[in-house]
Design a protein that fits this description.
584 residues, Aromatic amino acid hydroxylase, 22 helices, 5-stranded antiparallel sheet, elongated
Length: 584
Amino acid sequence: MEAQFESNPLIDRLPAHLKQFIIPQHYEDYTPINQAVWRYVMRKNVSYLGKVAHNSYLDGLRQTGISIDNIPNMYGMNRILKEIGWAAVAVDGFIPPNAFMEFQAYNVLVIACDIRQLEHIEYTPAPDIIHEGAGHAPIIANPEYAEYLRRFGEIGCKAISSARDYELYEAIRLLSILKEAEDTPETEIQKAEAQVDFLQNNMGELSEMSRIRNLHWWTVEYGLIGTLENPKIYGAGLLSSIGESAWCMTDNVKKIPYSIEAADVSFDITKPQPQLFVTPDFAKLSMVLEEFANSMALRKGGLSGIQKLIDSKSLGTIELSTGLQVSGVFSHVIAHDGKPAYVQTTGKTALAYREKELVGHGTEYHAEGFGSPIGKLKGINIAIEDMSPRDLSAYAIYEGEQVTLEFEGNIKVTGEIITGTRNIQGKIVLIKFKNCTVSQGNTILFQPEWGIYDMAVGKEVISAFAGPADVNSFDMISHVPSSHTIKQKKSAAREELEQLYQHVRNLRENKTAPLTLEQLFSEVTSKHSNDWLLSVEIAEIAHTKNNNELLEKVLHYLEHLKKIRPEVSLLISNGIELIFPELV
């Protein structure tokens, strides 16, 4: 990968298909306005969240080294996160949900390194460094919660998606980008919103990925903890949103006890949430997660698990009772008495045992797919995997023997056995045939002209999950997003305003600036009358330096702005309250 980024041992051990999402932070690209936005949100959040956030939040800010005054540098964050067993990487906006969760399974926090614009300072639908760095990072300093997050990622990345899930991800990604970008035509936003609405209302039966994403949303992103009457905030979406962190504490937002039922409550990422779930403690989160995992194909396997993989039309894995794992795109299953009797993949397939590819059974060898009967032989109570050497000999399952194996479901395998492969416990997991025909009635499933036939051995499918058993079996470096985040536009006026912000920042830090505070205030009011945050910062410095004459002018100007720009009135009031709460 070309991009350079600060690494540590946790990042080094990430598989290549996750590293493809990592981008460098380019700290120098953050502008003085970006820094001011970060500082405003963090000052407001720390002031307010000290009262309503879970007590792990403020402790976590200190432990993770996140500054109130400066956007966090990923390099510095990684050195500190290493102390609590985590790491952080920068990415470009939303990444696919299963990749996001797999990062968590490796104890790696994904941080979208862009930052919201001043116009969206209260809330942005796009992931940004305020949401990730100031929302997610501090709370993982709590060991119990951090383990929940890791475990969630471990289970969540195995959840099977529907074919529509990726469409919805792409639609939401595009909408979040368009809403955050400057000057996006309203028609484009409406078109993107309509597509998201259509997909959300036409998803059909919710997939495992959709349902576990719901759990993630109502806990990791928008979770409350404590009692229904007096909940505290721990979800990153609430911790990083000035508007929703206050709104969620009102009676306008319904509070519901957290349970497995949250998996079936979908959400709209572009709007404030009408209800939130309250967990009594972090232990409850883990209990519900395990309850959900018990319902997944990951733990149930069977015919329904294979069918979920077929419906997903994506790379997935089944594991047989012998431990043999088949990874590929599943295309067909033959059922018998509610159980799989034969399963088929299409295209590149790999066989593995305990997440390690079997030698000679990679995607080059199984380039055209793989099919095998599953289950017991017809009329024989003992499964092949449980047969002793004497049993195997009695049924002619032996090297060099010409044999016909008739499985339940009317699957017949006829050919000469070449050899067998056993697992570490001594059970046969694979039998190799030559001159082999596999059929179900008049339907030919494999014929001798196709070459050597490898038959999987297993009386049942014990697990089915998304992704490959061995990540090294497949070339998964294929991330080509359909949309890219849109950077802020540059103009002479914008550059001039950025310079004013930098000068004010210098004065606050007792550095030299070419203009006095009074001159800076005159510049911003005469040339950038739409801006409000810089005047709030000037008021703060004037108050600190006891410059009451200037302070009075600035406060009068801000009151005027509140009247002509009512949409920023609350933001201005919040900024003044940070300077001297007694005035508001």
